[in-house]
C-alpha cells in the first residue's frame, strides 16, 4: 500500500471530519455518558385543532425491530445502511416513545384502550415503520422522518386504512437537530392520524335518556 502523502491527507480530511461528526464519535471523551433524548412534553391541547368526539378504540401497536432499541438512527438518503449515533440515546426505545405520544394525542377525542379490552370495539392497528434522521448526500441538510401505517377494524371488517408519512427539516445537522425534527414530525403524524380517525369512525352513541 502506498503511504499517504500530505496532499492526500488534505483531500481526505473533510470526509473524515464529516464521518466523525455524523457518527457522534467520542474521540477525546472516553467514559462520557451518552446524551439522552425523549419526545418532550405533549403538545399543548389548546394548540391542537379541535376534532369531534369519536367512539372508543383499542390500540394494537407494533414497530420495526430496530425501533425497539434506544439508538438515535440516521442514514444518508435512501441508503440501506442505517446507523446510530455513538454518544446519543433515546431515554426509551422509539417504539415506546411514539406509542405513548399517539395515546396522548388520540385520547383527546375518545378513549384509547389496551388491545382486546372490549372485543366488539374498533381496533386500530398501527405500525411504526420509520423513525430516523435522513441526511442529504452532501451532508448539508437533513430531516426527521416518521412513517406510520394504520388500519381500523371492527367485527373483522376493515373500516379504513392509511399511511402517514411526515418529514420535518432539522435545524442543525447533528443528533440534537435530528431529535428536534423528529419531535415535530411525530406530533404532526399524530395529528394527521387523529384527523383520519375523525373522518373514518362514527361518533359516539348519544347517552341514553334519563
TrEMBL record:
Domain ABC-type transport auxiliary lipoprotein component: 39-194
InterPro entries referenced in this protein's UniProt entry, alphabetically: ABC_trans_aux
Domain of life (superkingdom): Bacteria
Name of protein: ABC-type transport auxiliary lipoprotein component domain-containing protein
Amino acid at each position: 500500500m502506498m503511504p499517504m502523502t500530505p496532499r492526500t491527507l488534505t483531500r481526505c480530511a473533510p470526509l473524515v471530519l464529516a464521518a466523525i461528526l455524523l457518527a457522534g464519535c467520542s474521540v477525546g471523551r472516553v467514559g462520557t455518558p451518552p446524551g439522552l433524548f425523549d419526545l418532550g412534553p405533549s403538545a399543548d391541547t389548546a394548540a391542537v385543532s379541535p376534532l369531534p368526539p369519536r367512539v372508543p378504540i383499542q390500540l394494537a401497536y407494533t414497530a420495526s425491530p430496530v425501533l425497539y432499541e434506544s439508538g438515535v438512527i440516521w442514514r444518508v438518503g435512501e441508503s440501506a445502511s442505517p446507523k446510530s449515533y455513538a454518544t446519543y440515546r433515546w431515554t426509551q426505545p422509539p417504539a415506546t416513545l411514539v406509542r405513548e405520544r399517539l395515546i396522548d394525542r388520540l385520547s383527546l377525542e375518545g378513549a384509547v384502550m389496551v388491545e382486546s379490552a372490549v372485543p366488539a370495539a374498533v381496533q386500530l392497528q398501527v405500525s411504526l415503520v420509520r423513525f430516523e434522521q435522513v441526511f442529504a448526500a452532501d451532508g448539508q441538510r437533513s430531516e426527521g422522518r416518521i412513517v406510520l401505517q394504520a388500519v381500523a377494524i371492527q367485527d373483522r371488517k376493515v373500516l379504513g386504512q392509511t399511511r402517514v408519512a411526515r418529514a420535518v427539516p432539522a435545524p442543525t445537522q447533528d443528533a440534537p437537530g435530528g431529535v428536534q425534527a423528529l419531535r415535530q414530525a411525530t406530533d404532526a403524524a399524530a395529528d394527521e392520524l387523529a384527523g383520519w380517525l375523525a373522518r373514518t369512525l362514527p361518533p359516539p352513541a348519544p347517552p341514553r335518556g334519563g
